[in-house]
Specification:
Length: 258
């Protein structure tokens, strides 16, 4: 009796062991099947197709262009690289501004200074007074002699002496071309101006002369300032020597001034 019970107990243990082994095998098979049929990329399986493959398998293996048929058309500047669609954010061409450089050897246009300064004094118009005074110390006289107080003698006068103070500005009486800048004992430092092809003027007893020969100047240009009188005009006092010539012959400056 005791042997019989022992035998039965051994059979029950064997049966339980076999059942457990079968259960483990079934669980392993089920797990393997679940792993094999699990959707990729987080998608859920959605049935099977006619050839037995799941719809998700078809979707996973499909060309991205088929999944997104209008992706490259709807996304600006998109292009396909492998299975990815890349968007080029900066593919538009930037207009290039061309800078046109002037030739290095271009010649600048030269402007004739005489074109801007009309030397047209003809004697019918009036010259501007060259200093801010109209007080005449000595008159023009070529037909008779006048008295020179400093020299204590009579002689002709080719120009006039206009009283002014040393340091006062002396101005060009008209548009002019400076033809000469010089000095002599009688009228000191002087400037000769060409007023036209016919007329010229000489201004003496100057200092600080600011113009140079061959320079075109406008009426009112400062020629310099008045100097102390020379030894020829000490008694007469400070003055501007002013002479006007027509065709190289002296004429009365008072007839030409305003």
């Amino acid at each position: 009796m005791k042997r019989l019970l022992t035998c039965l107990e051994d059979k029950r243990v064997l049966t339980v062991s076999l059942v457990g082994l079968v259960a483990v095998t079934i669980l392993a098979v089920v797990s393997a099947w679940q792993i094999q049929t699990k959707p990729e990329s987080g998608y859920e399986a959605a049935g099977t197709t006619e050839d037995g493959s799941s719809e998700m398998e078809v979707a996973v293996n499909q060309d991205p262009a088929a999944l997104y048929p209008s992706a490259s058309d709807e996304i600006p500047n998109a292009e396909e690289v492998g299975n990815q669609i890349l968007v080029n954010e900066e593919t538009q061409e930037v207009p290039v501004t061309e800078t046109v450089q002037e030739p290095a050897d271009s010649v600048a246009v030269q402007v004739d200074p005489a074109a801007a300064v009309n030397l047209n004094y003809d004697g019918t118009g009036k010259l501007a007074w060259p200093v801010d005074s109209r007080n005449i110390l000595m008159d023009y006289s070529m037909d008779s002699t006048v008295y020179y107080a400093t020299l204590n003698q009579y002689k002709v006068s080719r120009g006039i002496l206009i009283q002014s103070e040393p340091g006062n500005a002396v101005f060009a009486p008209a548009n002019s071309l400076v033809t000469e800048v010089g000095t002599n004992e009688e009228i000191g430092n002087y400037v000769v101006l060409k007023l036209s092809d016919t007329y010229s003027a000489t201004l003496g007893n100057l200092q600080g002369i600011t113009v140079t020969p061959n320079q075109y100047i406008l009426q009112g240009t400062v020629l310099g300032t008045l100097a102390q009188p020379t030894k020829y005009y000490v008694v007469e006092g400070p003055n501007l020597y002013f002479e006007v010539q027509c065709n190289a012959q002296p004429v009365d400056p008072l007839g030409c001034l305003e």
